[in-house]
Amino acid sequence: MRLPLAALFAATTMALLGTVPAAAQTKTVVVGGKNFTEQLLLAEMTTELLKSKGLAAEKKDGLASSLLRQAQERGEVDVYWEYTGTALVVYNKVEDRLTPDETYARVKELDSKKGLVWLKPSSANNTYAIATTADQARQKNLRTISDLAGVASSADLKLATDGEFARRDDGLLGLQKTYGFTYPRTNLVLMDPGLTYEALRQGRVETAVVLSTDGRVKAFNFTVLQDDKNFFPSYVLAPVARREVLDANPQLTDILNDLSGRLTEDVMRGLNAVVDVDKKDVRQVASEFLKNQNLLR
Length: 297
Prior knowledge:
Blueprint: H1 5-17, H2 22-25, E1 29-34, H3 37-52, E2 57-63, H4 65-73, E3 79-83, H5 84-91, H6 100-112, E4 116-118, E5 128-133, H7 134-139, H8 145-152, E6 159-161, H9 163-167, H10 172-179, E7 188-190, H11 196-201, E8 207-211, H12 216-219, E9 222-224, E10 237-242, H13 243-248, H14 251-260, H15 265-276, H16 282-292
Parallel strand pairs: 1-2, 6-7, 6-8
Antiparallel strand pairs: 3-10, 4-10, 5-8, 5-9
Helix pairs in contact: 3-16, 5-6
């Protein structure tokens, strides 16, 4: 559709003067989220919080990591919560062993070149882990991932994992390379990441990929195997936003930084448990947290 001459002149004038139309300033902020409980909570929290601050916001959650990242790079998602280790290894292909602070600094630098801004990191480090039941740990003398590597190729130890972890360099591929073992393909049980905990609890598998801030690890009395070769990188949680969206909405930085500062490992573990163990609705849990933090009226 062609613009009327007056509107075209106004738009050209604003472009020359460097001003931004009001419509661009009030453009809806698209909040993304991945497909597991912690991410669903964060996406809901962020969307509710932005709306309470007078910003137009909509939510697109339930996406796989790579799809979500691609959506943000294409401008289809404006902000979401990412993990430093994922950005380092999966998106930026960095294989260096870095400290948590070095990891954050590196991904912040690399992603800045792509127009993505890493805001204030939380103190929640949601790293991957391999878990088993207390009974299995005793029976097979499993304390470390090295112990697992010594028996995984021969023993009938099924591993519950999602397909994404099985294909990732910071997941099963790199884990097997670092520890020098291979899970037989027949022992890999692929499923939604949220189902691995119940599969392990019910004895349908002997080991499972878990997340360290998931409340079910403690609630189900799982034994987490020590990562004795320090394979898994730091997975500090932080909001990542497109630079042009931050420029158009200056208040967004302070809002997200404030929320990030309230998120610790204990906080996230507790919120995740309320959803996954107590079976409360994600929206209810997110709203209650924001209200308890005096972020919502």
